[in-house]
Amino acid sequence: MVKIKRNYLISSLLVVMLLLTACSGEESTTTHYNLTITTEGQGSVSPSSGSYKENEALNLEPDPDSGWFFKEWQGSISGDRNPYPLVMDANYTITAVFEEIDQLSLTGEVRVSNKTAESASESITIRQTDIKFNSQPKVKSKINSIANTREQEQYKKEEIIIKYKATTSLQSIKRLEQKNNLRKISKISNESEKIIHYQLPKDLDVKKAVKKYKQLEQVEYAQPNYIYYATKIPNDEDYENYTQNSSTQLNLEAAWDQQTGDSKEITVAVVDTGIIPNHPDLQGRISSAGYDFVDGDSKPYDLSANSHGTHVAGIIGAVANNEIGVTGTNWNINIVPIRVLGTDGKGSGNIVKGIKFAAGLAVENNTGKEITIDEEVDIINLSLGGNISGSDKDKTMRDAINEATSKGILVFAASGNGVYNEDTNRYEGISDVLEPASYDSTMAVGAVNSDNSLGSYSNYGPALDLVAPGTGIYNTTGYYDSNNDSFIPIYDTMTGTSMATPYVSGVASLLLADGVSPSEVEERLKDTAVDLGEEGKDEKYGYGLVDAYGALLNRKLGPPKVFAATKSGDDLTVVSEVREFANNTTYGLDQIDADEVYIIGWRDVNNSGRVDQGDYYGQIGPITVNDYSQNNDLYLNYIGPTTRDVPITVNGLN
């Protein structure tokens, strides 16, 4: 009996211990974290400080006292989100900051849109639309370091260019060729200029040959056959995700109300990789006067992996109002494609031939026949460049461009895309504008991002003249399908100073169509550009961002202004400080002297003191000042001919 009782007691104790252990284990698995909330200023927060279960979801809601507003969170969390979703996964110490209403600063994002306002008295919200890519397969760039001009070859091996003096006879030239075993590749000029491209004897050093032939009595100059590269950055992952409303930055919609190019057809020579001949957004824009100096025929088709020349041509003159694709800068342009860059995006002596050809000069083709262009070109676009080191300069290129500009042709060239940095995995601009952009006879164009900041890849320096959008530009491209012997037109995004340059060429063509003389175009573009860097001309932005609208009006437009105002009928009265801005940015308005206001954004283009056609205008409101709101996003829209409810008078704006 005693033994049975003992076993019974032991069993009972074990059961009790197991039960206690189970209860103790359940309690120990529940973790709590502490939430400590303090306030700065006058207000409270719910829920309050306390201990909360692990992963418990809370919504922190600030409740300001009368005359105060919630400004921000500090401590373990930050920002102004209200309410703030918090998951208790740690101990949190948080401060809710409240400020008095009389310290109010209305803030928000401000954007300029070229979407025409339907009504000047209504707030119109414009959102960035997603870029839709063509469903057909796209070709990625195969030019892996196209902008890395300092590491790439600067000139052709075993090749040289010699310009003979005008007095040198053909017999003397022939004797010199035979004596030195020089094999003529082609003439870069006509007979009278005597510029010849030679193949040197094998293993003869180019620099030594240049030095030797410079010293000859018959020779005016000798130089290497320099290589130039298309100044487009490959569509790798770092660049193709950019989007950009470049027409906004250039004020193009407003400019198109003044001039679309219909007044006079202007001809632009795109000296590049050629063109996709059947692209629907380029039909009716492509001249038959083009030429292919790479293959030596009259079919300058774009066979490059990235369709560089096609993209450049589309920026200048893609067809407008055809319900497909994109819109070019000029709606009535005549584009002459001149192919001088190969499928790898680089070229040498053919570029000089292409420039001379565009300038109406006779040049020799691959078969030795002299050819001339059937069009009169107004503008030459050179979205290419080469870094010629040291004191050496490409005299042949310089002379060809000088010949073109002496005939009144405008030449725009890309500043270049710097070098590729392996450590940062990006292209980085250098303070060295490439040739031929660095010449006095060309206008050098750099590139900016969508916020008007200088593209990290864009070269700069004293020779830089202007900047234009160059980052993430969506336009015409295509590729050659060798299996079916056909060209496939598509659209794609590219980045580089190559993209910025045709925007400037396009705006220049609008000025020419509007009757501005070629000799006045350059100064007009410089004088009306939006100053982005140091006041006046600087090395990062040149004279500034091209403003198509200001250039056509021949007026340097002032920056948009943001202010708070009261409204009575069609009259606005300013009741706050006034802020100016050049870029898309945030704004903050202090010293607000009213309980209910409108936030106004306005660019008074004609300085009339009234919101009327041609201006940019946007408003938010009415906003009750006591009901503080941090998210007062403001969009300025272009006031076009169809906009209703204008003009509006603005009082108290200095």
Walkthrough of the structure:
A hairpin with a 2-residue loop joins strand 29 and strand 30. The chain is an alpha+beta fold. Helix 6 (308-317) runs parallel beside helix 9. The protein has 11 helices and 37 strands. Strands 8, 29, 30, 31, 32, 33, 34, 35, 36 and 37 form a 10-stranded mixed β-sheet that branches. A 7-stranded parallel β-sheet has the order 15-16-14-20-22-25-26, with helices on both faces. The protein folds into 5 domains: 1-28; 32-103; 106-129 and 558-651, no CATH class; 155-226, Peptidase S8 propeptide/proteinase inhibitor I9 (Alpha-Beta Plaits, 2-Layer Sandwich); 229-553, Peptidase S8/S53 domain (Rossmann fold). The model is unreliable at 1-27, 123-151 and 231-244 (pLDDT under 50).
Q: What structural keywords apply?
A:
elongated, 5 domains, disordered N terminus, ten-stranded mixed β-sheet, seven-stranded parallel β-sheet, 11 helices, 19% helix, 37 strands, 654 residues, alpha+beta
